[in-house]
Design goal:
Blueprint (H helix, E strand, L loop, with lengths): L4 E7 L2 E4 L9 E6 L2 E5 L4 E4 L3 E4 L4 E5 L4 E7 H4 L4 H4 L6 E3 L2 H16 L5 H24 L9 H12 L7 H7 L4 H9 L5 H19 L5 H7 L5 H11 L4 H27 L2
Antiparallel strand pairs: 1-8, 2-7, 3-6, 3-8, 4-5, 4-7, 6-9
């Protein structure tokens, strides 16, 4: 579809054997209906609409009648570290935002129907696709697996994932959004051995790390603003408290990975063109 990303849609009823794909399946997104992940041991995992599956291995995905699935492969991942290695903490199966799913599907369907031919067009579209896919992966990290109606804690985590960039996001604003007292909200997080402030900071750190990994050319001050931090210094303190590498070190490593991926793509293009 582009120099780096390969994608296709599968409509049910169908079965996808991820080990027999021409391009390795690095990501599967349930676009509509319900699918099932059947692992090699025979266990079944239901995959409702707007579910992301990361790097399924030795498994089949059953696309039920009326369901649709999007499969994505990355040349840069095939030639370098896996998604799990590049983004520790990922879950293999996780819910994602339904609106983001629809937008990603529309863009991918359009590109599949009319692939770009010019170098500049490929570059712009590939960047757009990578940002959308990166957004899906990040969203899958921020959203709890449990449904939001199951607990106040889970619902608030979803709320934080949607509003991390709000400057006034905090215990008071969240309590008001859920029509509960801050004491009741605090108690719900204490039962999970954490705090609201720590959860907000953790989400913002994850967003900042994803932005740095996807777009190392961004200035760190811009990253901190996009991630909801009040300042670059606040972002650096949050990274230090989380035990991660500093934003600067992470940015250097991301730039190196991007250069290596670009070299891999050029090598593949040269091989494909022949002598």
């Amino acid at each position: 579809m582009t120099d780096d990303i390969r994608a296709r849609h599968v409509a049910g009823p169908a079965t996808v054997d991820v080990d027999r794909q021409r391009h390795p399946v690095h990501m599967a997104l349930v676009l509509e209906g319900t699918c099932r992940l059947r692992r090699h041991d025979g266990s079944l995992v239901p995959l409702p609409h707007s579910t992301l599956v990361i790097e399924p291995d030795h498994a089949t995905i059953e696309v039920l009648d009326g369901a649709r699935l999007g499969l994505v492969s990355f040349l840069s991942v095939a030639s370098g570290p896996s998604l799990f290695e590049g983004a520790p903490g990922l879950r293999q199966v996780a819910p994602v935002d339904a609106a983001l799913t629809r937008i990603t599907e529309v863009v991918m369907a359009w590109v599949l129907a009319e692939p770009p031919t010019g170098t500049f067009a490929r570059h712009i579209i590939e960047r757009t696709l990578r940002d959308l896919v990166g957004g899906l992966i990040l969203d899958s990290r921020l959203r709890p697996v449990t449904a939001p109606e199951q607990s106040l804690y889970s619902a608030v985590l979803h709320h934080i994932a949607d509003h991390y960039a709000d400057a006034d996001l905090g215990p008071e604003s969240i309590a008001a959004a859920f029509s509960v007292s801050t004491r009741h909200l605090t108690r719900a997080f204490q039962e999970e051995a954490t705090t609201i402030t720590a959860s907000i900071a953790s989400t913002r750190v994850s967003v900042a790390a994803a932005l740095i990994g996807q777009q190392p050319e961004l200035g760190l001050a811009e990253v901190s603003a996009k991630s909801g931090f009040s300042s670059l210094q606040a972002m650096r303190r949050a990274f230090r408290a989380s035990g991660r590498n500093s934003p600067s070190a992470m940015r250097t490593l991301a730039a190196q990975r991007h250069r290596a991926a670009n070299r891999s793509r050029r090598d593949v293009d040269t091989t494909a063109d022949g002598p």
